[in-house]
Structures are given as C-alpha cells and as structure tokens.
Amino acid sequence: MKETELRMEKSITALSNDLAAIRAGRANPAILDKVTVEYYGSPSQIQMVGNISVPEPRTILIQPWDASLLGEIEKAINKADLGINPNNDGKCIRLNFPPLSEERRKELVKGIQKRGEDAKVAIRGIRRDSLEGFKKQKKDGEITEDDLKNLETKVQKLTDKFVAEVDEIVAKKEKEILEV
After folding, report:
1. Which of 47, 149, 168, 174 is at 20 to 30 A from 112, Cα to Cα?
2. Which domain range does residue 81 map to?
3. What is the average per-residue pLDDT within 136-158?
4. What are the strands, taking DSSP E only, across 50-122?
5. Do residues 72 and 123 share a domain?
6. What distance, in Å, lies between the first and last C-alpha atoms of the chain?
C-alpha cells in the first residue's frame, strides 16, 4: 500500500512540475527550470549561474554572476523554445511576457486538460498494478479473500483521492490561465 501511495504521489508531483513550466501570461521563474547553460564545460541550470527575479508581473530578470555568461544564457533560452525573446542589455537579461491571446489561452487549457488526463491514466495504471500484485498474493495463499477485498477498497479510495487531487490541480491552473 505504501509503495502504491508513493507512486501515485510521484505522478502528482510530475504533473505539478509539468504545469509549473506552462506560462500563464504572468512571469513565473519556474519556466526556466529546464533551461541549462554551458558553464565551464558542464551544463548548469540558470538558477545555479545567476540571480533570477521578477521585478514586474510580466518580466523576469536574470543577472548572471559572471557577465561572460550573458551570451550563453541568451542562446540557451532561445534554444529552449519558450516562446519568449530574451533582451540582453550587457548586464542582465530581461524576459518580457506578452499578454496571451484568447485563442492561445484556450490552446493552453486543452494542453493542461490532456496532461491532467495523462496523470489520471498513470494513477489508474498504478492501481491496476497494485491490484494484480494483491491478487497474486491471494493466489499464492499469502493473504485471505477478506484481506484482498479490504486492500481493493483501500486502493480504490487512494485512487479516488489522487484523481480528485489531479482535478483540483488542473482546475487551479486553468483558472490561472483564463484569468485576464
């Protein structure tokens, strides 16, 4: 049961991290989490080579500790295809987020709903794996029929809880995106 719950929690965490990278017209430093820059021959996250701040609701400011990295950071952001053009002023890089069009908002909501469904499918797959394991234990005589029924009920309650959590996360992100 513990393993099942841990695996379901990992699905929720993966969904949350995935949705955090979707920009909602508002500056969110999490969009840079997957962007890496070459720093002395090794790939490093932007957070590790400079200071990231949000001075205005639609602007992210990146100030590298080493000014020679400005060009590398700019290339990395362009290569990451975030849909934002970095502005390099010689000291720092500004990312200006344009307001999202209504059409783009609807596209993002569809993508969010699809990711939510994918997370639910993953959770249901975990439930199926657990139930198969319990049935195998029953067949091998390790647990009784009553134990099997109890475990099936517990796994279903756990699944329902995590599916509801996915719905909640998706609804929250949709609201954030549709907010003008």
Report:
1. 47
2. 29-96
3. 91
4. 50-56, 59-64, 86-88, 93-96
5. no
6. 43
Q: Which two tokens stand for residue 81?
A: 């295809």
Distance from C-alpha of 144 to C-alpha of 124, rounded to nearest angstrom: 24
Q: Which of 177, 170, 149 lies closest to 11 in space, CA to CA?
A: 170
How many Cα atoms sit within 13 Å of 105 on the Cβ side?
Answer: 16
Tell whether the model's pLDDT for residue 20 goes beyond 70: yes
Task: Residue 107: give its domain's CATH number.
Answer: 1.10.132.20
Q: Please indicate, yes or no, whether the overall pTM of this predicted structure exceeds 0.70.
A: no
Between vectors from CA 145 to CA 142 and to CA 150, what angle results, nearest 5°? 100
Kindly write down the DSSP assignment for every residue of 7-39, as one continuous string: HHHHHHHHHHHHHHTS--SS--GGGGTT-EEEE
Residue of 166, 27, 6, 20 lying closest to 93 (CA atoms): 27
Q: Which of residues 96, 119, 151 is at a domain's end?
A: 96
Tell me how far apart the alpha carbons of residues 21 and 170 are, in angstroms, rounded to a whole number. Answer: 13
For residues 45-49, give the mean pLDDT: 88
pLDDT category of residue 123 using cuts at 50, 70 and 90: very high
Give the chain's mean pLDDT. 88
What is the rounded CA–CA span in Å between residue 93 and residue 61? 6
Six-digit token string for 92: 């720092």
Domain total of the chain: 2
Is the pLDDT score of 10 beyond 90?
yes
Looking at the fold, whether 81 and 39 belong to one and the same domain comes out as: yes
DSSP symbol at 58: T
